[in-house]
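Throughout our pipeline, every protein is held as a single compact record rather than as scattered files. Such a record has a labelled line for the sequence and another for the backbone structure tokens. The remainder of this section carries one protein's record, kept here as part of the documentation:
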Amino acid sequence: MRGLLYIIAVILVIGWAFGFFYVHVSSVIHILLIIAIIAVLLGIIRRA
């Protein structure tokens, strides 16, 4: 489960970076970034 969260987080960060630099749809991009950060934090919290 932890690996899946990291994969989702990486995909979301890549999507955020792609959207930020190429598409610039600001609200969707920031939502993707927030979801990615939450996924990483959940992975860290569950590991401890």
Summary: Residues 2-47 form one domain. The mean pLDDT is 77. The chain has one domain: 2-47. The CA atoms of residues 20 and 26 lie 7 Å apart.
